[in-house]
């Protein structure tokens, strides 16, 4: 059984009874696999209004330049100045998917996927799929940045500028530079194939693409998060009765999180940490101190940039690190200090 329907006069979606969906375009009579199409493109074909940051055609050259600025702080041909003297975007943001299912970006899911794939465990959101979010600097970031977040809530362009100047303590980016980063984000947008559907959903999606685009949009939206939520924790050491810390998880957090910035060779901070006993002893001695060296304090509040000392540590929100994971880390540090 085949059903073919033309949507917005440009695309024809075909769904067959095996659940496979193919898409035809007039320019390209070859079938395209739905899985390879960008989520946003499909949503727009299904009648959704394009977002403010909509980029109809990816420019590969711009995306490459955007990637260079993200990874190296400037273009490799030396034609612009470093955005931040202190940081690269990659110090705080990953460029890859952080969980197996974009619909579940809980700290547990991120840890499991990150540990298996050796992905840094970072306090800021991954750039993968950031293009598909609808609002930025959500939740408690308003507490941290106040009125500065307002213009970023609906506009990815402004969110990039805020991060360049505030989070990464750099200069203002020029409009063309931000556009290049946006093209880079577009190159990292979710494809339909990134989303994890049940068989039931795939079937329903196939049918509704043909005869109920509103439902099809709803099914697609339900499989990923529209925003990165942010809830700040407190410096109290969490109390979870009977909780046994998981050292293996903690070791991953320490090596792929803390050491991502604090390893000596990183030259991001003046505060070096490593796998040596001294590091663990130091952290252990401060565990119960109410100052910025105590693990629960530093993890939940980070540090603030001060004039003259611009490197600061971003905090891990409850969405980035769970209380269980914080207890894992505390348990691990005590264990390594006493080993
Ligand atoms: C020192 C750490 C740090 C650096 C460096 C950094 N960021 Fe960020 N960035 C953050 C934090 C923390 C947030 C807020 C949490 C989050 O990611 O949602 C954020 C948020 C963002 C957001 C909004 C994400 C969202 O979903 O709300 C964008 C866009 C962004 N950064 C772009 C950049 C770009 C581009 C660079 C490099 C020029 C950069 N950042 C460098 C820490 C950093
Ligand atoms: C994104 C980079 C980054 C990550 C990830 C990170 N830190 Fe930091 N951390 C910093 C920076 C930058 C500073 C400021 C140090 C400086 O002034 O040189 C800092 C400061 C600190 C300090 C010293 C606080 C003070 O008052 O000087 C401690 C302790 C610390 N971090 C522990 C940790 C631990 C534990 C982790 C893992 C849970 C961690 N950091 C993860 C960047 C990071």
CATH architecture of the largest domain: Orthogonal Bundle
Strand composition percent:
5-15%
Give the SSE string: EEEEHHHHHHHHHHHHH
Terminal Cα span:
66 Å
CATH hierarchy class name of the largest domain: Mainly Alpha
- What structural class should be given to the helix and strand makeup? mainly alpha
Number of strands: 4
Helix percentage: 40-55%
Please summarize the sheet with the most strands.
4 strands, antiparallel
Cα-based radius of gyration, to the nearest Å: 22 Å
Whole-number total of structural domains: 3
**What is the CATH topology assignment of the largest domain?**
Cytochrome Bc1 Complex, Chain D, domain 2
Essential attributes:
339 residues, mainly alpha, Cytochrome Bc1 Complex, Chain D, domain 2, 4-stranded antiparallel beta sheet, 13 helices, globular, disordered N terminus, binds heme C
Could you explain how this protein is built, in words?
The chain has three domains: 2-50 and 194-221, no CATH class; 60-187, Cytochrome Bc1 Complex, Chain D, domain 2 (Orthogonal Bundle), CATH 1.10.760; 247-338, Orthogonal Bundle (Cytochrome Bc1 Complex, Chain D, domain 2), CATH 1.10.760. Strands 1-2-3-4 form a four-stranded antiparallel β-sheet, covered by helices on one side. The chain has helices at residues 39-45, 60-72, 89-92, 107-117, 141-145, 156-167, 175-187, 199-211, 213-221, 247-262, 277-286, 295-301, 323-338; strands spanning 2-7, 11-16, 21-24, 32-33. Strand 1 (2-7) and strand 2 form a beta hairpin. Residues 1-11 and 15-20 have low confidence and may be disordered. By secondary structure, it is mostly helical. Bound molecules: heme C (HEC) (2 copies). One heme C (HEC) is lined by residues 70, 83, 87, 89, 91-93, 123-125, 130, 133, 136-138, 141, 159-160, 163-164, 167-168, 181, 228, 230, 314. Residues 91-92, 122-123, 257-258, 260-262, 268-271, 292-293, 295, 298-299, 303, 309, 311-314 line the site of one heme C.
